[in-house]
Amino acid sequence: MEPGKVYLVGAGPGDPGLFTLKGRDCMARAGVIIYDYLAAPALLALAAPDAECIYVGKKGGDHTLSQEGINQLIVDKARTGRTVVRLKGGDPFIFGRGGEEAEVLKAEGIPFEIVPGVTAGIAASAYAGIPLTHRKMTATLAFVTGHEDPTKEDSRIDWEALSRGIGTLVFYMGVKNLPLITKQLLKYGRNPETPVALIRWGSTSQQQTVTGTLATIEEEVRRVGLKAPAIIVVGEVVELRSTLAWFEKERPLLGRRILVTRAREQASDLIAQLTQLGAHCIEMPTIRVVPPEDMSDMDAAIDRLGEYDWLVFTSVNGVKYFFKRLFDRGLDVRALHRVKTACIGPVTAERLLDYGIRCDILPENYRAESVVDAFRKEKMSGVRVLLPRAAEARSVLPDSLREMGAHMDEVTAYVTLPVKDQAEELIALLEKEGADMVTFTSSSTVKNFRSLIPDEHFGNLIQKLKVASIGPITSDTARELGFHVDTEALEYTIPGLVQAICGTAD
């Protein structure tokens, strides 16, 4: 069997948005992905559903596999004939041992390609507002390993040349050796007042920057308690941070750890908006949305579409699953040519417009009661209304329209099911790493989140967890189940929820 091709792919510094287009294409084609500790977890979502993902990370001296073991693993997986992606934090050829892996592949006769990534030294510095070169300050730059012991006799680092001949120095993996690095630079003539910055988790929501001088930086790092992984930048360019810092200053939610409980297929908008504002989002879907097992009521309604005067959608899912079934039965939007439509919420209306239909009623407030008020302006006696929506939804809307004289047909378009397999993961998260806030976008997310936490541990686990709710119905459910609601969206939409969360930022 011919071996598969191996791609040594740079995962970038941590921000998934800095991943390359070629890297994304390689991930989609790969049958095997061998990834590091510093590779952003979000990148694994780019893998094919059937891809084999193998973690070989190294964290704080704890090596899952030795480098020799990793080399052999890459070779073995390639010999199965599958395409292999070796996903490495930063750039494969900058302190990533990608050169060693490539040498092994060459010796074994296995085809390979190198896909560069944005290296941490460049990205972390840029996100901290530090240009590594500047026409008025320096035209020389060096990347240096901080992992080597600067005092060993056979050191390959020319400390005298670095100290006196290079304007900007960027040390990788050097937090542990910071005292030795500063000692060597001072020993060989670097000015004690030279500015220094340490940037931890650069380009991510956990970014933390500590600045000082060669004379003071050790004490500053001790005082703050900064730990690895971090990049060390030494040089006059660090002074520009006071003017150019942008990432940490313009993100009100920077460093906040927020649990997102929405169904995974719907969570992307909320996660994207919170991440853009600096939050570290932890996906913890408590529900999944599926079509009902019995579609007979939906099918019967679709067969009688010509009899209805109104079609009402209360959610994006209602739109999605109604039209999917409509199309599955060989029909299209022309079947609705005489039917008027009403929607709850602008996002639902936008999704309906994706199918070429502009809704006739869109109330200002995004709840069932507002739709009822809007229908009071219509003649409803004897009018036939179709309401495709979730099973076990609130009865306010259909009951009110019936009171107005409408003939209501409620059909189940989709079902929300609880996600039960994340209880242990959630409890471990709340006990150890913790989270600052949980978001609830529906009553079902509240109920299912609550069901994952044992009663005897509930109070302790949520004691410091703030709750953000999308609206009053969801908030009422949360309070009934023992949560304290800290913030509620004024506009019952995802942007409204994000705005409310930003209002809680210190």
From TrEMBL:
Domain of life: Bacteria
NCBIfam families membership: cobA_cysG_Cterm, PRK06136.1
Broad EC category: transferase
Keyword Methyltransferase appears in the UniProt entry: yes
Coiled-coil annotated residue ranges, if any: none
Pathway membership, UniProt: Cofactor biosynthesis; adenosylcobalamin biosynthesis; precorrin-2 from uroporphyrinogen III: step 1/1; Porphyrin-containing compound metabolism; siroheme biosynthesis; precorrin-2 from uroporphyrinogen III: step 1/1
GO molecular function: uroporphyrin-III C-methyltransferase activity; uroporphyrinogen-III synthase activity
SUPFAM superfamilies membership: HemD-like, Tetrapyrrole methylase
Family: Belongs to the precorrin methyltransferase family.
UniProt key word Methyltransferase: yes
Name of the encoding gene: cobA
Residue span(s) of domain Tetrapyrrole methylase: 5-217
Name listed for the protein in its UniProt record: uroporphyrinogen-III C-methyltransferase
Pfam families: HEM4, TP_methylase
Domain annotation Tetrapyrrole biosynthesis uroporphyrinogen III synthase: ranges: 269-499
GO BP: cobalamin biosynthetic process; methylation; siroheme biosynthetic process
EC number(s) from the headed UniProt entry: 2.1.1.107
